Amino acid sequence: MRRALGTWGCCWALLLLPPLLLPAAGASPHRPRLQPGGRSGSLAAADTACKNRPLDLVFIIDSSRSVRPEEFEKVKIFLSEMIDTLDVGERTTRVAVMNYASTVKVEFPLRTYFDKASMKEAISHIKPLSAGTMTGLAIQTAMDEVFTEEMGTRPATFNIPKVVIVVTDGRPQDQVQGVAASARTAGIEIYAVGVDRADMQSLRVMASEPLDEHVFYVETYGVIEKLTSKFRETFCAVDVCAPGRHECDQICVSNNTSYVCECYEGYTLNPDKKTCSATDICAPGRHDCAQVCLSNGGSYSCNCYEGYTLNPDKKTCSAVDMCAPGRHDCEQVCVRDDLFYTCDCYQGYTLNPDKKTCSRAITSSLVTTEESCKCEAIAALQDSVTSRLEALSTKLDEVSEKLQAYQGRQQVV
Residue 159: which of 309, 230, 53 has the closest Cα? Predict the structure, then answer.
């Protein structure tokens, strides 16, 4: 526990440096020393407060007697810089600080300060407790005395995440596993940061899943400025659905710091949870067409059976007049038959084998009985007229002869 709080800031730096992440269980952790660096532009970027998602955030600081005074002062500077990056307020992020060693002290709960200046002033007055490492007791105290509505924690119905950041440089001197499990079950997200000789297995049993995002280790505290920038990225509201930040084929839906993929209407999400495939939107029950559904990519249109026309609502159909001009191919007469039609011809014409065109009918040589009787009456009348005309012609001839004889006698006289 030689360098407890002083190295705590370095623990945070591991969040920025993946090569320093805790190795797999059972392996001996490789602990390369991080060289402290000068002030860089990254801190300037972190100085601007972000619009982080609202949190109920509790820092739990291990302040054992191994912490040197100058190291503890650097930890307090780090806390102040962290406050500067957060969107602090009564309705945004609330912050509490706990100090622990053999005993636990709540420096200030979530309900005390809602402005950065007051928080930073309180942090500047924190003193190390200088004995022991009762990490389990510190987590239990956070549950009992800090994460309560009386002390400023917002009701569960508000859905405000409860976050604890535990920083330690050694092995806990009490039972941690059961207490941490109870805290996680209560909905508290735990980050475990180990410094110097911190026990890696203890960090793993107290942290939330996934462990590679909640368990960190660093050897020095000289990279505190980079650590501030990293937590700015972790807690700030980043648009994870911005172009280039996600792998969704069609629709990205932000879910706090993560996202899920969805598809446009007419598509379904594939098993990879990223890409989409067109669905059969013309399957029964998926459309509102009265007769015919025509799929068109991710959408559809309605049509009608032959003999029907689409109504203005673009969904239902009405029967059409198949014999209307332009709707049939009959040469002379169209005869409607429900949804269909047949062709016919005018009188004196007959329908050709194509069932569409017509030809003039040929008069039959056979006549009916009625027509035969009419012909005989006409023939008898004609004979009677002819006989009378012949008799009249004979009398005219006789008169003509007599007239000629009379004229001859007159000439002799």
Answer: 53
* 127 Cβ contact partners less than 8 Å away, ≥ 6 residues apart: none
122-142 per-position pLDDT tens digit: 999 999 997 888 999 999 999
Two tokens at 230?
């990293």
Amino acid making up residue 132: G
Note whether 98 and 106 are within 8 A (CB): yes
Instruction: Convert the pLDDT of each residue in 379-399 to its tens digit.
Output: 777 777 777 887 887 888 777
DSSP 234-256: HHB---TTSTTS---SSEEEEET
Residue 69's alpha-carbon distances to 258, 275, 347, 394, in angstroms, are 40, 55, 122, 171
- HEC string of the chain? CCCHHHHHHHHHHCCCCHHHCCCCCCCCCCCCCCCCCCCCHHHHHHCCCCCECCCEEEEEEECCCCCCHHHHHHHHHHHHHHHHHCCECCCCEEEEEEEECCCEEEEECCCCCCCHHHHHHHHHCCCCCCCCCCHHHHHHHHHHHHCCHHHCCCCHHHCCCEEEEEEECCCCCCCCHHHHHHHHHCCEEEEEEEECCCCHHHHHHHCCCCHHHHEEEECCCCCHHHHHHHHHHHHECCCCCCCCCCCCCCEEEEECCEEEEECCCCEEECCCCCCEEECCCCCCCCCCCCCEEEEECCEEEEECCCCEEECCCCCCEEECCCCCCCCCCCCCEEEEECCEEEEECCCCEEECCCCCCEEECCCCCCCCHHHHHHHHHHHHHHHHHHHHHHHHHHHHHHHHHHHHHHHHHHHHC
Q: What is the mean pLDDT of residues 99-127?
A: 96
Percent of the chain with pLDDT over 70: 78
Structure tokens at 397: 């001839």
pLDDT of residue 56: 96
Closest CA to 100 of 56, 66, 132: 132
What pTM did the predictor assign?
0.51
Place of tokens 């007769």: 291
- Backbone phi and psi for residue 27, each to the nearest 5 degrees, phi listed first: -90, 155
